[in-house]
Amino acid sequence: MTSPNHSPEHNHRRVGRFMGFIAWGMGLFLLYLFFQDQIQQQINPNQQPMSRQTGKMNEVVLKQNRAGHYVMSGFIDGTPVIFLLDTGATDVAIPESVARDLGLKPGYKYHVETANGTATAYQTEIQSLKIGTIKLTRMPAAIVPNMSGSEVLLGMSVLKQLEFTQRGNELILRQLR
């Protein structure tokens, strides 16, 4: 004799509810992935910077993010990183955790002035820095232990080697080859 709680109809309803729950969970997960990608695109609209080679120039066109900053994906010594263009920075400034992931070795210790006051930094050198078709080699950089976030600041030591023009919400970087 079958108990009323374990009838075939009851079991089909339980399986149906379970499948509905799984479908609902998958839908939420897919929405999360979609919106996560949208948020990342707003933070870093230059995940694959538009690049071209014209004549003797490498050119990269960057778009501002919603906050008005130029954030872009690139590479340091062949490893992917996120850069934030900072005209107020003298050198390339790398958070300590990112420098560790890149295998950069800290050199001599010195002090730097930041928007938040004086900070300790350690000299290092980047063998290659790449944004789109632009590639720079043997760049001086600073490892900054208490720097928050994971973005690498691109300072004037990089920009002085490039020609750059801002028009509207775009920045064009050019490098002579």
UniProtKB/TrEMBL annotation:
Transmembrane among keywords: yes
InterPro entries named in the record: Aspartic_peptidase_AS, Clan_AA_Asp_peptidase_C, Peptidase_aspartic_dom_sf, Retropepsin-like_bacterial
Protein name: TIGR02281 family clan AA aspartic protease
Biological processes annotated in GO: proteolysis
Source organism of this protein record: Pleionea litopenaei
Transmembrane segments: 15-35
PROSITE patterns for the chain: ASP_PROTEASE
Keywords, in A-Z order: Hydrolase, Membrane, Protease, Transmembrane, Transmembrane helix
Enzyme class: hydrolase
Matches recorded under Pfam families: gag-asp_proteas (PF13975)
